[in-house]
Design a protein that fits this description.
This protein is of the alpha+beta class and 674 residues long. The protein has 25 helices and 19 strands. The strands form five sheets. Strands 8, 9, 12, 13, 14 and 15 form a six-stranded antiparallel beta sheet that branches.
Length: 674
């Protein structure tokens, strides 16, 4: 008997659809076998828990009995959480792009009984609007074509599947400083000089793009690139995309001013922004960036820690069926909460007016006053924000997707480990270590990492990004603690990637393992997404492992990785910003080591280290050189007599060690630039 079978799933997104009259199945071989047996095409619907337009389509169509009847009669209906199965999402989103469509979520794809895509789209309305046909009309037309024109369907399915599996076979140019310097110089022109971000709307944080731009600014001494990154971060920090009461950043702004967010908060955006802001703060010492790093981490640790210590995936955009309702204010509410005088003062700073700045309501922002105020003003504003935050807690909260994803946790752990060291915050490091332990203890089964965990269960096979990001996290924790277990785990996971994900015929890491049995193709790609690509992350990881262990096999694999994607990257450099940025770690792998004998008591050199941005560098402080567990890359760097001693290195070549602060700063700036 057909029925909705999502009741037994753990994904919050799938559970949102468990009571739909649609006979949903989760993605599985059993669901694909059912399609083969029935002779029906597959309707694949992909979304995620915090997706506003996914909710809209669900309310309009999936909760509607008439629409569900058509879906159940004509299709085998499969629902996928893109966060739980990013490999499935990537395949079918890639197919949509092959069809010439822009993409987005909800993703609606039509597959043959083998799981091969032959047509699709994104959001379809219940009735014709937005230039889109009615969803029921689409369903009937697709089913009719599938039945009456099987040759056409088979042709489309083969063409799309072949295109997804194809990869460039030609060789590409070697990456070098001349190429990357020219690229970052040209990238500046794509940035809005006044408002930051890529010109136009909507505006996304675009971590890959701005990480490369910052690296270019530092390595090639490009003041325009530096200004572009600083402007972007300051606008993001003061815009409505930032939650000025609780902390944390929304996914993106729908306008060009960073005012109106798409209100969902994703773990990965906040991890990447924490990391970038921390690195830029080191160079600029911007009080605003420091404040936002602290506030955002406070938000993460208070609202995004799931049971057991792992980090939850997201907060929804909607509450009570309305996008942003939890976050916006009226001037009357502010006056009632703060009183007339304080409300007037607060409103002058946070753009609160009687008419509002968005649909009659106010999105709090400080876009008219980008700089941090005086200590006195900031203290008063914090008191008022705290009052509003306390009042906001009485509202109905947005949905919380508390599943733990290994790849996103890796990003947050890495960010916390670095920020904890830079800002000397041991509680942040403890949280990072707790999350790492959670992933290792609860998300590894039979020696294999899994992608997702919720409600006591692991689900979904690990992607290459799960391993790559957790290796990054392990290496950052090793930097922060010098505990050998972290380095050992990074090496073990790298061996697993090399064993099950490396494509021996063409090179590069596939998104899925060689024994993942429910995907139609193993995607090989290095292009940017909202999160860093696994191949880009691994390129940096491999060079770090080479530096710290001295094992030349890691450097050789990094060289092979660059060669595997050289043609793809050269064809569209900007679309591979993250990979190009990682290439700098292969061109000029940087390492800074400060060693101290047990008798040393000052922190002059570590404090100086935090006044200089060293993007991509491996940074260690060895407090007691008597530690016998030091890896090869640290064991030959001894302190001079009873003084802290610094080593600045590019690859295996190190400048003479120094104990002088001025000389240390000079060497750092010399080794980070060409």
């Amino acid at each position: 008997m057909s029925e909705n079978r999502l009741h037994h799933e753990t994904s919050p997104y799938l559970l949102q659809h468990k009571d739909n009259p649609v006979h949903w199945r989760a993605w599985s071989k059993a669901a694909l076998d059912e399609a083969k047996a029935s002779g029906k095409p597959i309707l694949l619907s992909v979304g995620y828990a915090a997706c506003h337009w996914c909710h809209v389509m669900a309310h309009e169509s999936f909760e509607d009995q008439e629409t569900a009847d058509v879906m159940n009669e004509l299709f085998v209906n499969i629902k996928v959480d893109r966060e739980e199965r990013p490999d499935i999402d990537a395949i079918y989103m890639g197919a949509l792009h092959q069809l010439g469509q822009r993409g987005g979520w909800p993703l609606t794809m039509f597959l043959d009984a083998e799981g091969r895509p032959f047509w699709g789209g994104t959001y379809f309305p219940k009735t014709p609007k937005y230039g889109q046909p009615a969803f029921q009309d689409v369903l009937r037309q697709v089913a009719d074509i599938y039945t009456k024109q099987p040759d056409k369907v088979a042709h489309n399915a083969k063409a799309l599947t072949d295109a997804l599996a194809a990869s460039r076979s030609e060789s590409g140019p070697e990456f070098n400083d001349t190429m990357i310097e020219d690229l970052t110089g040209r990238m500046v022109r794509a940035v809005d000089p006044d408002l930051g971000g890529i010109n136009g709307a909507p505006k996304f944080p675009q971590w890959n793009f701005f990480w490369l731009l910052w690296r270019g600014a530092i390595r090639y001494r490009q003041p325009d690139a530096r200004k572009a990154v600083e402007t972007t971060l300051h606008m993001i920090c003061q815009g409505g995309i930032y939650d000025h009461l609780a902390g944390g950043f929304s996914r993106y702004a729908v306008d060009e001013y960073w005012l109106v967010p798409h209100f969902e908060k994703m773990l990965y955006d906040n991890a990447l922004l924490i990391d970038l802001m921390t690195e830029v703060w080191r160079e600029t010492q911007s009080p605003l960036l420091k404040q936002r790093v602290h506030e955002t981490i406070v938000w993460v640790l208070s609202e995004m820690v799931a049971e057991g210590g792992g980090f939850a995936a997201s907060l929804d955009a909607d509450s009570e069926g309305e996008e942003g309702k939890f976050y916006v204010w009226s001037s009357d509410e502010i006056r009632a909460c703060l009183g007339d005088d304080d409300a007037q003062y607060f409103s002058s700073w946070y753009d609160v007016t009687d008419t509002g700045n968005w649909e009659g309501k106010t999105i709090l922002n400080r876009l008219r006053r980008l700089s941090v105020a005086s200590d006195e003003n900031e203290a008063r504003l914090k008191e008022l924000r705290d009052k509003l935050l306390a009042h906001r807690t009485s509202r109905i909260r947005p949905g919380w997707d508390d599943k733990v994803l290994a790849d996103w946790n890796g990003l947050m752990i890495a960010a916390l480990a670095r920020s904890a060291r830079v800002f000397n915050q041991p509680t942040w490091l403890a949280a990072a270590e707790a999350a790492f332990a959670f992933v290792c203890n609860r998300m590894v089964c039979d020696g294999r990492l899994h992608h997702a965990f919720r409600d006591g269960k692991t689900s979904a096979p690990a992607t290459a990004s799960d391993y790559a990001n957790m290796i990054w996290a392990a290496l950052r924790l090793h930097e922060a603690t010098l505990q050998s277990d972290y380095l050992d785990q990074a090496e073990a996971w790298t061996q697993r990637l090399n064993r099950n994900y490396w494509l021996g015929d063409s090179g590069g890491y596939a998104m899925t393992a060689d024994d993942t049995d429910d995907v139609i193709v193993r995607l090989k790609m290095a292009a940017d997404d909202a999160t860093p690509n696994a191949n880009a992350v691994m390129l940096s990881n491999l060079m770090r492992l080479f530096l710290i262990t001295g094992d030349a096999a890691y450097e050789a694999r990094a060289t092979d990785l660059c060669a595997a994607f050289a043609a793809d990257v050269a064809a569209n450099l900007v679309a591979h910003s993250g990979f190009v940025a990682a290439c700098l770690d292969q061109i000029a792998p940087q390492q800074s080591v400060i060693t101290s004998p047990a008798t040393a008591s000052n922190d002059v050199l570590p404090d100086l280290l935090n006044t200089v941005s060293l993007p991509g560098a491996f940074e260690y402080r060895v407090d007691n050189h008597a530690n016998s567990d030091l890896p090869v890359g640290l064991s030959d760097k001894s302190p001079r007599t009873d003084q802290e001693t610094a080593y600045c290195c590019v690859g295996p070549q190190c400048a003479p060690p120094t104990t002088e602060g001025d000389e240390f700063l000079r060497l750092l700036k010399q080794t980070r630039s060409v």
